[in-house]
Structure formats: structure tokens, C-alpha cells
Design brief:
The protein is an all-beta fold and about 130 residues long. The strands form two sheets. A six-stranded antiparallel sheet has the order 3-4-8-7-6-5, with no helix packed on it. It has a three-stranded antiparallel sheet with strand order 2-1-9, with no helix packed on it. The termini are far apart.
Amino acid sequence: MGRVFVVELEGRTYKCKFCKTNLALAENVVSRGFHCRRGKAYLFNNVVNVTAGPIEERMMLSGLHTVTDIYCVCCGQIVGWKYETAHEQSQKYKEGKFVLERGRIIDGLDSEFYIDTRPSSSDAEEA
């Protein structure tokens, strides 16, 4: 296996809970109102330091999507998934975006989670 190169991020970040590797900038959060099997999740425009698993069709609360699970590049833990294709027109905004599960990330301050008190108007997902 080759050497792993890790992208360092500047600013407020979210990190892998298991190895503290940077995964995303807080400014890239699209929605904090998503859900997965293990609890709450965040939708991001972009994440770094992840590898993708195989592409699969997955039925979620909002319909059928083509997704790939994403894993931390350093420790290999699953941290969420990426939307490849949304099959319903109303869900097309998710294509190319990433979901990080809150139970698998921490904020860059090593605190449990930043609590955002602004209302969210996103739908929930079931992975």
C-alpha cells in the first residue's frame, strides 16, 4: 500500500472521531437536519481525506438514490456516504454532496458537537 497524503484544513473543521483526521470545513455544511441509521448527520458540499466504497442503490426516506459509503483515509472507519445520483427530481440537489454521520465526527475543537440553534428545513435520510 502506498503512502497516505492528508489534506490539512484551515478554519473550523469537523474531524474523524476515531483518529482526528480533518474531514470537512464547517462553512461547507449545507444542512444539519439529516438522519441515518445511527442518528443525526450533516450534509456537506465537500469533504476531504476520505475514500469511497462500491456504488450501490439505496432506498432512503426521500426515495431511491445511488450512493457510495465513504471511509476515513487514515483509520478506515466509515464516516458517511456520498450521493452519486438522486432518482427523483426533487432530490437532485443532493447529487455530488456528502453526508457525515454526527456520531462518527467531532468538531475541530475536540468538543462533542457544535450545537446550531438556527432552524433547518432539510429532509431526513435513512441509510
